[in-house]
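Input (structure):
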């Protein structure tokens, strides 16, 4: 196959559609359960349960090879049953260590993870000599092998995904309360034990679903990455489930798409190269990339927008402080003095002058800066908010007049018009501050 594969082929061509749809279903279900792990602060549980499935599958294959006459026919079922039993035993062991032996949760997770992996390797080494073919298939579960999935896997993952969705819909009202306020949930009669038990079963299901596509080693990342991305765009738990499902499904599709298309490009460019890009790792890379971009760029919580808001606020504080200085100097102040007062570089000072001249806040008059009428009103409002807050601290909180200035220096930049109005009403529209300075009149606008 030498040409780039059309987009539609991934949903119509049986060669590509089975693996694509199966991975999308897997990522959809895993991302939903990942939200539960995220909000319950059990992000590492997926890693532990994924490793716990390994000895379960190895044991199932060993037993099946000893007793089943036609083991190839029941091989997929043996993997699922072994993975579920291994994951469930790992979960029970972890809970026993935490609840009965009072072991720290991180310690319990690490203990179960390491013991499970060691036991799995021990059983796998026995299988390596007794049944090398099945040993190779077992090793496939470490990193996943999406390309070999069949229509039966699609049907199975669709059923499991439906079960996950129905369970979350059924548990959602109680889950919403118990994860964020356990005491209130207890008073409301919410069965937290039932919710906890059911969600842990869902964790095991998520691991079973994801084994074939992303494998034991990468599965925990697929659980958490969509939830991390979803958190950046969500204000409610419901929104987080929706966004996580979207990001997870997109990751499942793009992982398959990039795996196939990049493989075609590599073979075309380097015919002698005997290498490909596996689907499971690419799914996780896409999910991690989406999470990374979300952490950087999401409007509310993104790192870059947050830096921009910090910069805007710092600039606002600086400008308001300069306006206040100009107001105190009766509207005129030399640029050199402004630079000295606020520790500004020459470039930053001239940029400020240029920007505020364009806004009509001040004008340059010889070596000095002079407030325009618009600038004078802005300066008056800053001074008014400063002195109102000083009166509030002095009259209502009983703070000495000598100690109110610093707090007012900070609050003057964040007091809203609504708070200004409330302070004016509460203080009965005072005319002078604790230092006997005049408070500019009410109704000063920005």
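Output (sequence):
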């Amino acid at each position: 196959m030498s040409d780039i594969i059309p987009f539609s082929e991934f949903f119509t061509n049986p060669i590509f559609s089975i693996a694509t749809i199966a991975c999308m279903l897997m990522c959809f279900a895993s991302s939903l359960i990942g939200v539960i792990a995220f909000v319950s602060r059990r992000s590492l549980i997926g890693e532990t349960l994924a490793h716990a499935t390994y000895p379960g599958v190895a044991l199932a294959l060993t037993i099946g090879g000893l007793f089943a006459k036609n083991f190839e026919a029941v091989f997929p079922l043996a993997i699922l049953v072994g993975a579920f039993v291994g994951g469930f035993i790992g979960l029970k062991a972890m809970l026993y260590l935490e609840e009965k032996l009072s072991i720290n949760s991180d310690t319990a997770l690490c203990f179960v993870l390491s013991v499970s992996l060691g036991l799995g390797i021990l059983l796998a080494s026995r299988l390596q000599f007794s049944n090398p073919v099945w040993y190779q298939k077992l090793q496939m579960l470490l990193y996943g092998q999406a390309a070999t999935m069949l229509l039966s896997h699609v049907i199975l993952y669709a059923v499991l995904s439906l079960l996950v969705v129905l369970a979350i819909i059924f548990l959602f009202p109680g889950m919403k309360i118990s994860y964020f306020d356990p005491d209130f949930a207890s008073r409301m009669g919410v069965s937290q034990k039932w919710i906890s038990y059911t969600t842990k079963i869902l964790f095991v299901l998520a691991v079973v679903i994801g084994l074939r596509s992303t494998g034991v080693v990468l599965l925990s990342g697929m659980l958490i990455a969509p939830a991390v991305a979803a958190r950046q765009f969500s204000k409610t738990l419901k929104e987080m489930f929706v966004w996580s499902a979207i990001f997870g499904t997109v990751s499942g599709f793009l992982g398959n798409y990039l795996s196939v298309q990049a493989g075609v490009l590599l073979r075309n460019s380097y015919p002698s190269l005997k290498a490909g890009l596996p689907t499971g790792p690419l799914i996780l890379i896409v999910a991690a990339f989406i999470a990374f971009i979300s952490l950087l760029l999401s409007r509310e919580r993104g790192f870059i927008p947050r830096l921009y808001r910090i910069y805007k606020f710092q600039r606002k504080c600086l400008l308001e402080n300069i306006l206040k200085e100009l107001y105190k100097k009766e509207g005129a102040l030399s640029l050199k003095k402004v630079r000295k007062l606020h520790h500004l570089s020459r470039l930053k000072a001239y940029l400020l002058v240029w920007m505020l001249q364009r806004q009509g806040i001040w004008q340059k008059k010889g070596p000095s800066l002079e407030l325009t009428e618009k600038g004078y009103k802005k300066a008056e409002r800053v001074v008014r908010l400063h002195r109102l807050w000083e009166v509030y601290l002095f009259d209502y909180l009983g703070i000495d007049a000598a100690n109110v200035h610093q707090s007012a220096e900070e609050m003057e930049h964040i007091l809203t018009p609504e708070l200004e109005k409330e302070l004016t009403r509460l203080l009965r529209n005072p005319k002078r501050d604790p230092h006997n300075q005049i408070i500019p009149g009410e109704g000063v606008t920005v």
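Notes: The chain has three domains: 9-301, 305-371, 380-446. The radius of gyration is 32 Å.
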